Amino acid sequence: MQKCKRCLLPETYETFMFDESGVCNVCRQHEVKHGAVDWNKRAEAFEEIISRYRGTGDYDCIVPFSGGKDSTYILYRIVKHHKLKPLVVSFDHGFYRPHHLKNVERTLKLLEVDYHLFRANMKVVAKTMLESFKRKGDFCWHCHTGVFAYPMQVAVKFNIPLLIWGESTAEYTAYYNFEEWEEQDEEAFNRYINLGINAEDMVGMIKGGVTERDLVAYKYPSLRELKKIDYKSIQYGTYFHWDPFKQYEIINNKLGWEKDEVEGLPPQFCFEKIECRLSGVRDYLKFIKRGFGRTAQSVAREIREGRLSTEEGSKLVDQYDGKRPESLDYFLDILGITEDEFMDIAIGNVISPHVHNLNKVKNGKQLHDQDDWERTPIVE
Which domains does the chain have, with CATH numbers? Predict the structure, then answer.
């Protein structure tokens, strides 16, 4: 299996292509990010955009917010640097960890913002998880879709036309590049967020298990509704140089935002995906399907930023990627499936030319808070 000679990620990585030197297109994009983009002009363009919306309604913008490192940094910048009044909107996917909730509460208090939280019916969530897992090898449809569709619904309902999201997708994939003025719109939603399944599709797939009313939170508003409020849905990372490591240091210093232990990651990267109990399972599934996990993705970023050599990165990947997470037992219990069933679905979604070798898999260690997770099954 071919791997990028620079970042070490394999050819099974989403949107990857290699040039004649064996370097992937995402690494080449980062050369543009560091050398060709005029970030000062981009910042000026951002200020021009927000000036059109500042003070025109009850809120200047919506900041979609998980409470992870990225959305916390954006919220901090929007409030403290750009002096906007946001409505903070969260789609709670149902699997937040205790330490994460403390970070969220502290952040909201310190930044003095209004907070709108939606949490979906977990029985409905379970049905969508199982259906998307079987069809796409990804059980996170409800999270992908809800996180992006629901804030758009709030924008329409409360007439708040400006939404400010996180990084450009060019940071990690090649759906768009750094030379484009990427926006978080319906094209992006259908192109790489909803797994090719909209809410109406999901109703038909589950076959009587849910109704359209059950999945209303996952519907993207119509273009007519969005045009009526003259919406603008943008990514902060399109306008400002994105560096998660430095951004973590800022929110840690300014807001007391803290790391937490994360399955499949070395300690220096444990500001990634600290919010979700199922991150370890999803990354394990990615390793089974594509041959890399969360550490490989974090290493690739640090290599591109010049903070790690390929040799140092390779050692970390070998040490941390691909272990069976202890949280898999929790996942199987709440969804009512066996590990054999999980593996059958996962192996059925392996991306060629990767071949998963189950005999080489080692067990990971249990997270410090796992015994405190609420374990009521969410299947009927």
Answer: 37-239 (3.40.50), 260-372 (no CATH)
